[in-house]
Design a protein that fits this description.
The complex is a heterodimer of chains A (115) and B (117). Chain A is built from no helices and 12 strands. Chain A is globular. Chain B is an all-beta fold and 117 residues long. Chain B is built from no helices and 11 strands. In chain B, the strands form 2 sheets. In chain B, strands 2, 4, 5, 6, 9, 10 and 11 form a 7-stranded mixed β-sheet that branches. In chain B, strands 1-3-8-7 form a 4-stranded antiparallel β-sheet, with no helix packed on it. In chain B, β9 and β10 form a beta hairpin. Classes of the chains: A mainly beta (115), B mainly beta (117). At the A-B interface, β6 of A face β5, β9 and β10 of B.
């Protein structure tokens, strides 16, 4: 079975703090993709990153960085120097063949960044 | 590129009426579309997969007679909530598989917030 676990339901930080959102996944596929999406209060899903199972290189994009570790089945997301505009729900997701190539979402982590 | 336009963004309807939500792929042909439902403060749950020209495949527990999905063209899929009730109030969002990205490339509509009163 495929599963994505985001154990942190809500996180509250003060602006300029760094924050890491955890994501642990389960899959029997050798080929799979992992994603992070941001969902602001307006509701739309904003794509942040896609990473395939063969690429364990960490990635940095501005204040965002991702740490992919197959050994621990984790794909964690760090926001450096958080800003109020980062307040949103963040979803980690997985797509793999045994799941019929359907997007499996984690429960989401609600991030509050206070000024 | 690869934009899916979803309408309406929000809708309020009376209990017992039907509501249609549209998703259009603007710059590509979407042979496969997915419909998700999201209750407040919850994750997105897949309702059904629709392939152009064929019947939709519904996930377990989703009433296919209540949530009618039509994917009659390569650029349009619709979800009709029939005889809506307050418990159908939710956020509905569509997703389309993007050509050229295999089974791993998807783009999402902006969502529809349905409130049944």
């Amino acid at each position: 079975a495929q599963k994505v676990t985001q154990a942190q339901t809500e996180i509250s930080v003060v602006e300029k703090e760094d924050v890491t959102l955890d994501c642990v996944y389960e899959t029997r596929d050798t080929t799979y993709y992992l994603f992070w999406y941001k969902q602001p209060p307006s509701g739309e899903l904003v794509f942040l990153i896609r990473r395939n199972s063969f690429d364990e290189q960490n990635e940095i994009s501005g204040r965002y960085s991702w740490n992919f570790q197959k050994s621990t089945s984790s794909f964690n997301f760090t926001i450096t120097a958080s800003q109020v505009v980062d307040s949103a729900v963040y979803f980690c997701a997985l797509i793999g063949g045994t799941g019929g190539f359907k997007t499996i979402f984690g429960a989401g982590t609600r991030l509050f960044v206070k000024a | 590129g690869a934009v899916v336009s979803q309408h309406p963004s929000w809708v309020i309807c009376k209990s017992g009426t039907s509501v249609k939500i549209e998703c259009r792929s603007l710059d590509f042909q979407a042979t496969t579309m997915f419909w998700y439902r999201q209750f407040p403060k919850q994750s997105l749950m897949l309702m059904a997969t629709s392939n152009e020209g064929s019947k939709a495949t519904y996930e377990q527990g989703v009433e296919k007679d209540k949530f009618l999905i039509n994917h009659a063209s390569l650029t349009l899929s619709t979800l009709t909530v029939t005889s809506a009730h307050p418990e159908d109030s939710s956020f509905y969002i569509c997703s389309a598989r993007v050509p050229g990205q295999g089974n791993y490339g998807y783009t999402f509509g902006s969502g529809t917030r349905l409130t049944v009163v």
